[in-house]
Amino acid sequence: MTPPALAEVRPLRPAGPLVIAIENVTKLYQMGEETIHALRGVSLEIRRNEYLAVMGPSGSGKSTMMNMLGCLDTPTSGRYEFNGHDVAAMEDDELADIRNREIGFVFQTFNLLPRSDALRNVELPLIYGGVPPNERHERARKALEDVGLGERIHHKPNELSGGQRQRVAIARALVNRPSIILADEPTGNLDSKTGIEILALFEELYERGNTLIVVTHEESVARHARRIIRLHDGLIESDGPVF
Amino acid sequence: MNRLIYELTESIRMALAQIRANKLRSALTALGVVIGILAVTLMGTAIRGVDIGFNNSLAMLGSDVLHVEKWPWITGDDWWMYVNRPIIKPADAVKLSRIIDATPNSELDFAVFVHGRGGVSVKAGALSINGVVVFGSTGDYGRILTADFTEGRMYTETESDAAQQVCVLGSDVAQALFPGHSSIGQTVIVKGQPFRVIGVLAKQGSFLGLFSFDDQMLMPLGAYRKYFGIRNGNPEIQVKVKDKTRIAEARDELTGDMRRVRGQVPGEPDNFTINTQDAFKEKLDPIKQGIALAGLFVTGLALFVGAIGIMNITFVSVRERTKEIGTRKALGARRITIRLQFLIEAVSICVVGGVIGLALTFLTCLGVKAAFPAFPLEFSASLIVISMLVSVATGILSGYLPAASASKLDPVVALRYE
């Protein structure tokens, strides 16, 4: 491995203003009699246009961390601010609005609606965001063109390859111009060649100024990021740049 | 606001896609609602039909006529109270008329004695008709009849007093005895006696399907008395009131007059009954409503079973699409959005079932009307509106619980669901 050479081909963009501020966050789960400490006090700051990987073995609190970052879940204690909004105190529907406006999700299993074509799938967050139909079609088409699927906007998911499906999902994540893109094992269901294509697309998105958070257990995927956070037993084990 | 409209449109599109994707399942589920709506609407048409028939029949009695009789029209266990009352006689009517004429500003117009006998056969040449109801009355009865004359006239008081053998025929009787030509001036034979036809009544239909006004024959009381007799049966005095909005006052006056006719002392209960169309209606309405309610309840059970089917299938749908719900929530769907989506899915199936059920009801009505014209089924526009509302309500009721459970799913749990 030759880190200096890698750093040359992978420019590090200047980080922007603070997007996520997490301070001393804990998360407890009640599993029958047992209380599980998924997060035991985590502090973290993420700035605009960072490219971050969250790593850790299973049981490390990685999934909990992702749910927290994605505003799918709220912490048991601690502070979580997203663009200055106190997420920890939010109700379900407020969280839904934050997810809709601020977060673009990319899932391991793509999670596309099987009976809707690519365009409709990408339009979905815009529908929930109250965007009028004409603007919606235009923005969804543009997002699909941006991920290289301009020719396949009317294909249903089962008419697309795995890589193309994930591109649709990425277009869907991008279409609302969110503050962060949160990808959970984005290459987990893809062959290695397609995985590399998707990571190249992430690189492109990063260079266009997007903020990316990739949750993965694969070192090779994480190393494409500029910063890696390693979790272990519900605590941050290390947090630093990739060389 | 806009957002809600976009979400609604999306929900309807998704619901229809879902129905299309699960055709057999949706069809089977909708079948329950089809049967339910069919049962309820058929019941509705029957109730309406009976109601219309009933009101038409009552209208034939005339709303401005009071009937003085020995018996109330509807009796139950209390028949023994009436059985020993004196029978109504023509002399009662004569006395009553005298009292009415002598009363200044009377609410009552005039009184007519009427006696009827059913099951009479009437002949004319080679033709004959059985089951005719013959009424004997004075000429004034013509002013009480609700039917018009298609030809001819009523007999006059003079003809009546002279017991002339003239008669007025109901339309079916005239039709049967003199098909295709006028019956005026023709002779019919009743009880072996010749009667000259001087009038024919317009078609009226049957009273509650029990007897037909078109099967009647009217003759002067004198002649009737001679050949049929008036000591048996159920004679009555029909009294026309001047103002039909003042029936209650007229009835009070008539009660007093009749007590004078009968020479009753104060405190003695009336030995006659004054029957009115309204009172008849009042007595029958609760029975009618009871039957209607029971009918709707029983048929409503069919709809209820259909609703349970919808609820069941919506629960299945929620379970099958748990991951999709998680995804939608992750993308920003609020609780109400998810709830609406599944509610609309349930309502869509119900409405599809409702439309099919309604169409079947319509066809059934057409078929029944063609096969049995007298059967009381009445399809109406309000039925369409009501059954659509019922379908939507059924959808909402049956979709509510599954939709609520879907909307409350934790996105984290839902996304992990396989």
Provide a quick synopsis of the model.
The complex is a heterodimer of chains A (243) and B (418). Chain A is an alpha/beta fold and 243 residues long.
Q: Can you walk me through this structure?
A:
The complex is a heterodimer of chains A (243) and B (418). Chain A is α/β, with parallel strands linked by helices. Chain A has one domain: P-loop containing nucleotide triphosphate hydrolases (Rossmann fold). In chain A, the strands form 2 sheets. Chain A has a 6-stranded mixed beta sheet with strand order 6-7-8-3-9-10, sandwiched between helices. A 4-stranded antiparallel beta sheet of chain A has the order 2-1-4-5, covered by helices on one side. Chain A is globular. Chain B is α+β, with helices and mostly antiparallel strands and 418 residues long. Chain B has 2 domains: 191 residues, no CATH class; 186 residues, no CATH class. The radius of gyration of chain B is 32 Å and the shape is elongated. Chain B has a 6-stranded mixed beta barrel with strand order 2-3-10-5-7-6, surrounded by 4 helices. A two-stranded antiparallel ribbon of chain B has the order 8-9. Classes of the chains: A alpha/beta (243), B alpha+beta (418). The interface between A and B is medium-sized, with 29 and 26 residues.
The CATH topology of chain A? Rossmann fold
Q: Helical percent range of chain B?
A: 55-70%
- Please outline the major beta sheet of chain B: 6 strands, mixed, barrel
Give the ordered list of helices and strands of chain A: HEEEHEEHEHHHEHEHEE
Which CATH architecture of chain A is right? 3-Layer(aba) Sandwich
* Overall average pLDDT of chain A: 91
Q: Mind summarizing the main beta sheet of chain A?
A: 6 strands, mixed
Total number of beta strands of chain B: 12
Question: Which of globular, elongated, flat, extended, rod-shaped describes the shape of chain A?
Answer: globular
Q: What is the rounded distance between the termini of chain A?
A: 10 Å
**Biggest sheet of chain A: strands side by side, in what order?**
6-7-8-3-9-10
Secondary-structure-based class of chain A equals alpha/beta
Strand-residue fraction of chain B?
15-25%
Helix count of chain A? 8
